[in-house]
Design a protein that fits this description.
Order of helices and strands: EEEHEHEHEHHHHHHHHEHEHH
Number of domains: 1
Mean pLDDT: 97
Strand content: 15-25%
Helix content: 40-55%
Distance between the termini: 32 Å
Length: 294
């Protein structure tokens, strides 16, 4: 996987971030979702590397990046902390301004990055999400029934960790099948093996729960403080045409409350379209990126 890409382990303060980089041209940072790792982009990144320098990074707590234990205030796994990690990664690689695309949790990190470092983020592509604030404040029984993990994972340690840790493959593979709308046979075998290697680590299980604990607490506080201040850079909202989210939200309209310049497009299939529809996803990202002014 990632043939022609170079692997880096970059120290950002006390946190080591694992990433790969390859290609040529303007820098593009790709951030994975839950419960994946940078492996999510293994089929997509090479499709963009002819005309972009593509950086794929493991978020703090995932893959082969550092997995510190959470703190009482959930700052350790806040989107602000995870975004700062990735700003440091891009600086270390020599990129002070770049495009960023994030799927699922990676999209939420990218959203916070665009708010906190507007001078660094040229454009934001948010893949199959609406803002965290909207997800929690607009909850109803339909949303809670489909996105029950948003209420299970933030429960106090060690309750979700113990339940997930009893059979992590069963739990996380269920996420891929139910949310992705496709059986495991649709996923690349080598990519699945890499996901399993990582999510079997108790430290990753704890970190992923802590990610959601922050989302339900400190991230909401910070999002509320920033509500009304729109993202200044162009934003592409890519969403799954057969996913859960588009049946619950008008995704384009929702993002217009948070960003000044919004474009939207549906990708075939379910939530995990970066893995299952890499060509269509790469084409949509390229169309957006080449449409932007220099």
């Amino acid at each position: 996987m990632f043939e022609g890409f170079q692997r880096h382990r970059i120290q950002i303060g006390d946190i080591a971030i694992n990433c790969v980089a390859g290609g040529q041209g303007p820098p593009l940072l790709l951030l994975h979702g839950y419960p994946q790792t940078l492996t999510q982009w293994a089929k997509l990144a090479p499709l963009l590397s002819d005309d972009h320098t593509v950086v794929c990074a493991d978020l703090r707590g995932y893959g082969d990046s550092a997995k510190p234990h959470n703190d009482a205030d959930n700052v350790t796994y806040s989107f602000r902390s995870l975004a700062a990690d990735q700003i440091g990664v891009m600086e270390a690689l020599g990129f002070n301004r770049f495009d960023v695309a994030g799927h699922d949790r990676g999209g939420r990190v990218a959203h916070r990055m665009a708010l906190d470092w507007p001078g660094r983020v040229r454009s934001l592509s948010a893949l199959d999400i609406v803002p965290t604030r909207t997800m929690y404040l607009d909850t109803n029984r339909h949303l809670a029934g489909r996105y029950w993990q948003w209420y299970f994972l933030p429960l106090p340690e060690p309750f979700p960790e113990r339940l997930i840790g009893a059979d992590p493959d069963f739990y996380f593979e269920n996420c891929l099948v139910v949310n992705g709308g496709a059986g495991l046979a649709r996923y690349d075998r080598a990519m699945l093996d890499e996901y399993r290697r990582c999510w079997r680590d108790p430290a990753m299980i704890h970190a992923s729960c802590s990610d959601y604990r922050a989302g339900a607490s400190i991230d909401l506080v910070q999002d509320e403080a920033d509500f009304g201040r729109k993202i200044a850079c162009p934003l592409l909202a890519l969403y799954a045409g057969k996913g859960l989210l588009c049946g619950l939200f008008d995704i384009d309209r929702t993002w217009r409350a948070y960003a000044a310049d919004v474009r939207s497009e549906a990708i075939p299939g379910g939530h995990f379209f970066p893995e299952l529809c890499p060509r269509e996803t790469a084409d949509a990202l390229r169309r957006f990126l080449v449409s932007l002014p220099d």
